[in-house]
Amino acid sequence: MQSIIKIRSVVVLLIANLIISLCSTPVVYLNENQILYAMSTLAQVIAGLFGLVLAAYAIIDPKLKDIGNQSKQSSDYVDTLRSRYFQNIIVLSVICAITILSSLLTINLYTEVSDKLFSILISQASIFGFFSILCFLYFGCSLLNPNALEKISKEEKKEIEDGYGSNLMDDDFKPFVAYYNKLESLIFEFATELMDKDLQGTLNLKYRNGRMQIFQALDILVMNEIINRQLYEKIDELRRYRNALVHSTDDQKVIPQIFNELKELYSKLFEVYKNNDDQEERIRAIQNLYAFSSHISLSQLDQQIIEIITNHAGISAHEMVLKLQVTRATLSRHLKKLSFMEKIKEKENGYYIIS
């Protein structure tokens, strides 16, 4: 979204400059040497700044990757931050190339075009150069921001809480974190026991060494039809919410509805685990767990997505991002969740409601 705002700002400036250049006479006149010096210097400065920013990115990105590998709770935020930085590098590369090409174009055409057109060319190149310098400085500062991960965790927490549309909050987040940790331990233990006996020792070793990932454990439960994809997405949402609470330095409070869903999910999954040796009771417990998944309430954002798709059948994901003012990653998670719940379906030309 920030990139779109930046692009729109540049387009507005360029259009305004074009109108002003066409409707007014030049105020400053430059000779040949001044033109060559100004444009060549601009191109060199932009190229130099891009090189410095690229070097800083090459140093910081591996360090962020190491942080993500060392901390499971930070891995999501690190991946998000690395993705943002990479996207910014792509945008900066394009801006840098346009600025340099614009400068070279001005140098090569200043003797071939009219004064009016030359005025447009040199002012456009100057705007690109000024905008490029601002972008480089902004990105350089963002690379050095020590609170970048915390900011992302706050965004994640706010996104999930806004989805529930509730202002009622519990004061203490610690019971929620403790309960989630119980759920995660249960998932790991259950997944390990479900694996083939020939591999069980290896998986136990991985679990003890902390190398088994939560998604691997959830995949095992899905493959054994203990949980469905709706529960998979719900557990992932609870995991992200727990991580956001842990990393936030603000006054951490929890929405009671989320906590209640966590407790009920743990209780029903534990019933399945407890009756793993009793086939009849196990089937009944799994049915109760599946029934719980079908009654998981839709978040406010889910309802907005359904309403938009209902009113605009065949709408694309990009159009929904613009309408909802959310990130593509956020929208993707909710679209996947609604697809698993069989509320919507994706076709070649967009998304539709399942009637």
From TrEMBL:
Key word Membrane present: yes
Protein name per the record: Uncharacterized protein
Transmembrane segments: 7-29, 35-60, 89-111, 117-144
Organism field: Lacrimispora algidixylanolytica
Gene3D superfamilies: Winged helix-like DNA-binding domain superfamily/Winged helix DNA-binding domain
Keywords: Membrane, Transmembrane, Transmembrane helix
Family annotation (InterPro entries): WH-like_DNA-bd_sf, WH_DNA-bd_sf
